[in-house]
Design brief:
With 222 residues, the chain is an alpha+beta fold. A 7-stranded antiparallel sheet has the order 1-2-3-7-6-5-4. The two termini are 33 Å apart. The C terminus is likely disordered.
Length: 222
Amino acid sequence: SVKQAMIAWLGPIVDEFYSSTEAPLVTLIRSDEALERPGSVGRPVLGTPHICDEDGTELPTGVPGTIWSEGGVDFEYLNAPEKTAATRNDRGWRTVGDIGYLDDDGYLYISDRRDDLILVGGVNVYPQEIENVLIEHPAVHDVAVIGVPDDEYGQRVAAFVTPAPGYTASSELAARIVDDVKEQLASVKRPRLVEFVDELPRTPTGKLLKRVLRDELGAAPR
């Protein structure tokens, strides 16, 4: 992975924090921990994470759900009381809508944003998992996965790919990419649409704007 390569290059000096602008929860993972637990964002240094299902029931370790924080920084959205209220539960915990899970040692793993969740025939599909597989393909320079409308299943998986140097966008390349990753992804998680783009929409800080993809590229059924 990119992070493992950075640690190998720079040495064990790469520390990673996970939080949000609202900061109800902050976690930290050191280089040695990251190598032992690939994909984790560490353990909390502010707030206590709880993983809950849609009914608010706490889930066992290893099962993804909404990340709630007990303690941490309180926050509210300006002139948006309903939006603020939606981030609280009856226990006083707060969430920013991220999905993840905890392991047995209390390390947190981020699966995705709830807003990005794809529902395929009643099955929850996490785009980040698919993106992590696709980005390892030699023909893929950059990738974003979203759900697009589907008459039969409600949604289907669509991958928007910037080809790597030396590769030319084509239907043959799209089919090859999907075929090459089929052993790593369950059938419901495999892209049913691969659309090539010159560049993915990002903010100046590099944050992927999936909303733009949904609005401009993924809104129409195919």
